[in-house]
Q: What sequence folds into this?
């Protein structure tokens, strides 16, 4: 698969993720759907403490959409972003290969 | 130090540039290493992502690095949070010390200590937790 990445939530008693691995670039709208699906899947307390982090991540995807997405070439460096609530509870975004968050 | 008084930087290219220089200088002074980034921090159109997340990244060895995330002042967030993150770079395991902070003289001092300990391979989970707990509400 030429386009790979994931959204991951980490916590004291939590680890869950939504990833993508596909032959076509990930659309921004699909990225938002994956992110929202992960957020909605969390227990309400876990979702609540990460609300700000999820909102910041959505804003990043929107900004990327307006700027040609994110493009990680073959042996390029990944994009890694973290949206922490504190040192144990956070949301991570990693784009490891290919193009993500482009306009539909 | 003047740069420690910088509050907002996301909408100020000059402040942002000053902070990048500040962290590069801090890192090199502490480790003796030149900055060597291991993550992409640009959009697809080539424009730099200037949101402070991260504001500084560098390898310290082939499989270890430091990532600093700087946030603008936010009363709802801890002034400092730090953790060890295991990831994959070019299909190989890679470990990073991540420090998320709001910059002031105290969090700068803690960050210096964390970078030194991690670079010297003597940062323990207990030390890390002790520093984090100081900043938990």
A:
């Amino acid at each position: 698969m030429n386009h790979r990445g994931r959204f991951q939530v980490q916590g004291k008693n939590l680890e869950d993720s939504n990833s993508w691995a596909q032959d076509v670039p990930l659309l921004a709208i699909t990225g938002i759907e994956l992110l929202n699906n992960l957020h909605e899947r969390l227990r309400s307390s876990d979702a609540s403490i990460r609300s700000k982090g999820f909102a910041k991540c959505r804003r990043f995807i929107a900004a990327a959409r307006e700027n040609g997405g994110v493009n990680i070439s073959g042996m390029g460096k990944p994009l890694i972003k973290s949206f922490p609530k504190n040192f144990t509870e956070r949301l991570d975004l990693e784009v490891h290969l290919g193009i993500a968050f482009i306009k539909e | 130090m003047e740069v420690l008084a910088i509050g907002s930087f996301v909408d100020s290219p000059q402040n942002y540039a000053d902070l990048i220089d500040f962290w590069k200088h801090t890192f090199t002074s502490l480790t003796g290493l030149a900055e060597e980034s291991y993550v992409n921090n640009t959009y697809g159109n080539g424009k730099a992502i200037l949101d402070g997340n991260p504001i500084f990244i560098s390898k310290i060895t082939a499989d270890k690095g430091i990532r600093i995330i700087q946030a603008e002042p936010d009363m709802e967030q801890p002034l400092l949070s730090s953790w060890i993150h295991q990831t994959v770079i070019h299909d190989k395991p890679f470990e990073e010390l991540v420090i998320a902070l709001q910059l002031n003289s105290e969090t700068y001092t803690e960050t210096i200590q964390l970078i030194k300990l991690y670079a010297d391979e003597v940062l323990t989970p207990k030390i890390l937790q002790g520093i984090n707990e100081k900043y938990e509400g």
Summary: The CA atoms of residues 25 and 99 of chain A lie 5 Å apart. Chain A has one domain: 3-102.
